[in-house]
Amino acid sequence: MPPGPARPSAGPGERAAGRTGLVLAALSAVLLWLVAAAWSPLLSFDRSVARALHRRAVREPDLVQVNRILTDWVWDPWTMRLLIAAAVLWLWFRRERLLSLYTTAAVLLGWAIQQSLKAGVGRKRPQWPDPVDSAHYAAFPSGHAMVAAIVCVLLLWLLRRHGLRGRAWAAAVTAAAVSVVGVGLTRLYLGVHWPTDVLAGWLMGTGWALLAVAAYPWVEGRVRSRTHGSPDAVGGGAGPAG
């Protein structure tokens, strides 16, 4: 009997992603525990930073409007979802079906984790007598920050797999970093999140996405071993992550 197709092994990029993802997951767990336990020093830090930013926002209505545009349009979760949906469709029509489905599953599972944590922790948002913006549902973790982190990390992974290098790669990394950090800062400036909500969104979103990146070679190998297909048959992708 001829041997089945060799399973793809995780390269240095995926292994590094896995290690980093585990570290971020551990930090996320610690932060979750501290917030759930209402650790006084952490809550005091949250209140002091939130009050200082709110006082500034009240004095700067023009900057408030800029932040609203950024958070509600440029870096809104639906904008991020449209970006990853476009990437998923592009992969599908390139016949990279497994990669397309895997990316979709990673985003959906990340969203489920976010919603479960919001419901489980049930943290209230900051309350102001003179709010400059409003938001609904529980505060922890920040959905804007977590969605941006998941989508941007996955998009960078896909771009790297498909050969993006040099200045274009540097530009993509810069745009992703600005988006992830920027959307978190807008949520803080507008007074709809505590600092640790945003930090949790960054840690959890980035950690989850990196773990998804690290797990893909294993998933791809399992699919190939069952189908005995070629990379084209399961949508193996354009190349290894760097």
Average residue-wise pLDDT: 92
- Number of E-state strands: 0
> Could you estimate the helical fraction of the residues in percent?
over 70%
> Roughly how many Å is the radius of gyration?
20 Å
User: Structural class of the helix and strand makeup?
Assistant: mainly alpha
Principal-axes shape call: globular
Q: What order do the helices and strands come in, and which of them pair?
A:
Elements: H1 12-36, H2 40-59, H3 61-74, H4 77-93, H5 97-121, H6 143-161, H7 166-189, H8 195-227, H9 231-234
What would you say this structure looks like, in words?
With 242 residues, the chain is mainly α. Helices cover 75% and strands 0% of the residues. It is built from 9 helices and no strands. Helix 4 (77-93) packs antiparallel against helix 5 (97-121), helix 5 packs antiparallel against helix 8 and helix 6 packs antiparallel against helix 7 (166-189). The radius of gyration is 20 Å and the shape is globular.
Q: What's the short version?
A:
The chain is mainly alpha-helical and 242 residues long.
